[in-house]
Write a structure and sequence with these properties.
The protein has about 525 residues and is α+β, with helices and mostly antiparallel strands. Helices cover about 50% and strands about 20% of the residues.
Amino acid sequence: MEARLKGSTGSRIVAWGETAIRVEPLAELIEKGLRQPELLHSDQFRRRFDRAVRRMLAEPGTSKGAVMDQVDSALSRAPHDLCEAVKAMLAASLTPSSPRADGLLPLVSRLAGAEEAREVAAILMNHLRARYGEDVAAQLWLLAPKPELCASLEGSAAGEPLMIHWTDGDRELARLALKGLNAVQTDEIEELAPWLQPVFKRLVHSAAEREAAKTARREGHLWQLRAELSQIAQTPQSEDAYLRQVVGRVHKRFDAVQVVYWGYDPADDSMAPKHHSRPNRPELDVPISLGFFQEAIANRQVKTAARKGADGQLRLFLLGPIFNGETLEGVMQVILPTRFIGCEAEEELEVVDDLVAQGLKTVRFYEQLSFHASHDPLTGLANRRTFEQFIDREFKLAERHSTPTSLIVVDVDHFKQYNDAFGHPAGDALLQGIAGAIAEATRSTDFVARYGGEEFVIVLPHTDSTGAHAAANKVLEAIRHLNQHTTVLSGQVTASVGVASYPDDARNVSALLQAADQAMYQAKHAGRNRICQAGA
């Protein structure tokens, strides 16, 4: 690495593994001193001589003996007094010594004890400003493991800078650029430069270790987050329940101020907040522009911005769009304290968004499995197994709280003849129409199921025999109303309905079911298309 300094014609800047300094060949320097003996007694010549010796010793394969041999060869014809002066300088150069400039030993000690690059930079910059005045300008870069400007001084000095480079093999560790130093000050800095070599090597090594540790922690953090979100997705639950758990887990893992899941409604192309990790936080209210959302969605990547909340506090806002293929599911909004700026939170949120997209697929798959296992595929009503579980649970609650519960059994009249006359597709359409009519005629708290074939059952919690009879009338009227819609049915249809209640007609589930079933058969024997009450 070679360059030229302004005003130093004939000198070289070389990188010799520690610093880039101006060095003259040792033999040429001795010859110049012998021609001008007065130079041998100047401090400047001694420093130049010392640098030339250290430069030779830094070259691979060069020993102290080789340096001494070269000096002896250069002094073969020199007067005795001059030989003694040169050999004295050589002995001083070959003897390990600390920096000779005043005040550098305490500085070297402080730099050697610094643990962070910015700490080293602050110590060095304070020394430069205090020692060389306000005009000096300086910049210190730590170049490994990644380029980073550690510190700078703004001065009024003009001209080309003095550049000092610290290297380790082919890798440049650090670089110092200085302006505003005279020749003596430049020599002083060059005296200091080799002592900084181990400091920068240690800083680079420590920085690499910290970076590796940080990466390991981050990978461990992401691995644990993946495991947690995957575990949540494997638990059979509703989509809303899954998203609530995800929002809570993301809040905890990010140490967030708040996490909000915005659901996307494709019907009107709108976004609305569905789940909050910390609802009712008015101080976090921030007017987020539609463009902020649109940019994140259009680029399909996390969008970051610093915003002030209603309380005036500055916070970091991240929007991460969640896509399943080309379909937008929603947007995860994470609000973080400003200390997280530059902490790779965007990349971690991208991982979360991908995991949530996969989790939504899994949750919906389990929801479909659960639905098919608990519902009748033709009518979409609950099946017999689900009905038995529900009425058993409801009956126990009615017994415990001494509340009435009623059961309605509906059986389609002459369904076999209808099937034979119009075909099985028409029979299926009839069952679907009746199922829809019953669902429309009942309350949201009632439980409707297809019991089997053309038979339907309705459980009415907290309903006595009077209320159950009124509900049965509504159901029968809804079925009769189907006859007016010829697009639904291929022929006329009626139904027989039986009603039984706890505790009036039965004291257990099986007795209640038997009583309602017998009442339904009474309706059929009485001429069909009517309602019969158990015990009537």
